Each structure stands twice: as C-alpha cells, then as structure tokens.
Amino acid sequence: CVTLDVQAACRDTTVTQELLKEGFHRDLLVKVELGEHAAGCAVAAQVRLPPGIYVDPYEVATLQQQNLTKAVLFPDVIDVEAPEYLARDLFLLLFLEPDARCSRCFRAAVPVHARYHRPAEGTGEALVVLESPEVLLCCCHSHLSAECWEPAEVDTPCSSDTTSPCQWHSTKHRPAHEESMLRVPVGLREHSSLVCALTLLTTGLCSGLILAAACKYGHFS
C-alpha cells in the first residue's frame, strides 16, 4: 500500500505539448504541472527532436537576447539546410517559466521547423513523431523527494544565463506517454518524370530567352 501511494504521488507531475500554427514553421508549446511545489527550483523540459524537425540555433539566440525564451541545444551546431534523411536527432533543454494562473504550473514555447523529406509513393505527406518531453528539476537550495526524483545526466547549469553547475533531477515515474504528430507535405514519386520534364523545359525556355535578349540588346566588341 505504501508503494502504491508513493507511485500515485509521483505520477501527479504531468506534461503536455502542442504544435501551434500550420505548415513547415510551427511553435512547440510545453506545459508542466508539478505534483509538488518547487520553490526556488528551475524547471525544464528535455525534448528529443527527431531528424524531421529542428530548432534554428540563430533564431533561439535572438529570442534569448529579447528574453522571450531560454533554451540549450545539443549539439549546438545544426545544419538547418539538411533534408530529413541527412539529419540526426537533436536534444532541446527548454527552460520553463511559472504560469501566473497556477502555482505548480510552468510553460514555455520555442519555434520549430520541419525539414524536407524524400518523395513518397501513394501519399502526399510524411509523419514526424514527437515524443513526450522529460520533466527536469534543478533545486540548488532545496531537497526533492527521493521516491519521486532521481539524478539526471544533464551537463548544463540551472539557467541559460549562468555557468554555475547544478544537479538536475528527473521523475522516476514518467507521466502518461503522449506523442505529437507533425504532418509534412512531400512530393509523389509517380510525379518525378513529369517534374523532371517540366524543369528541363522551363530551364531550356528561360535560357533561350536570356540568349535572345543578349543577342538583341548586347554590345559585343
């Protein structure tokens, strides 16, 4: 009975995520409600981004300068032009801010972008699965329940503004597993011949027009 009570108390921490807006450029909103008060603690969400989606480090840096978001990327060097099949997983540590409407609630948002995918056969979209984030706490001046929290292997300070080390903790009993689906438009393989033909025709036509204009109006010595 004691074990069940402990597990029930630990499961009080909940995390939800939403992909806002439409198209290739979205906002990822993460909301956390803790099962216990975390006065003086930093609250963060560690999000694994699959190859089909990424965060622009330059955009994040600009938002941090404007104090609109706080985040750390692993790795911090990202090829934002790479297609999905040449990219790799990223890890985003998103620092959450207290929600004024709820004493145990925290939230934060960050822009995310979909990568281009290979053409598919029989479908005009690809699915990118975004797993539920991991909730992390960093309490430098208070103690967490050992039954609910355990040290996490996160090598970053409690705040993106400081360099002081601090021990992060993650929940032992993860919240209910929830996934978000991002639907990315892709080309159809059966259209490849038509696309190649139209591209070649357009290129030839434009080249001919440029050559004709150069011969008519150009001055050649």
TrEMBL record:
GO terms for cellular component: endoplasmic reticulum membrane. It is a single-pass membrane protein. Pathway: Glycolipid biosynthesis; glycosylphosphatidylinositol-anchor biosynthesis. It comes from Cinclus mexicanus. SMART domains: PIG-X (SM00780). Keywords: Endoplasmic reticulum, Glycoprotein, GPI-anchor biosynthesis, Membrane, Transmembrane, Transmembrane helix. PANTHER family: PHOSPHATIDYLINOSITOL-GLYCAN BIOSYNTHESIS CLASS X PROTEIN (PTHR28650:SF1). InterPro entries: PIG-X/PBN1, PIGX. Stabilizing subunit of the glycosylphosphatidylinositol-mannosyltransferase I complex which catalyzes the transfer of the first mannose, via an alpha-1,4 bond from a dolichol-phosphate-mannose (Dol-P-Man) to the glucosaminyl acyl phosphatidylinositol (GlcN-(acyl)PI) intermediate to generate alpha-D-Man-(1->4)-alpha-D-GlcN-(1->6)-(1-radyl,2-acyl-sn-glycero-3-phospho)-2-acyl-inositol and participates in the sixth step of the glycosylphosphatidylinositol-anchor biosynthesis. Probably acts by stabilizing the mannosyltransferase PIGM. Coiled coil: none annotated. It comes from the Eukaryota. GO terms for biological process: GPI anchor biosynthetic process. It is found in: Endoplasmic reticulum membrane. This is Phosphatidylinositol-glycan biosynthesis class X protein. Belongs to the PIGX family. Its main location: endoplasmic reticulum.
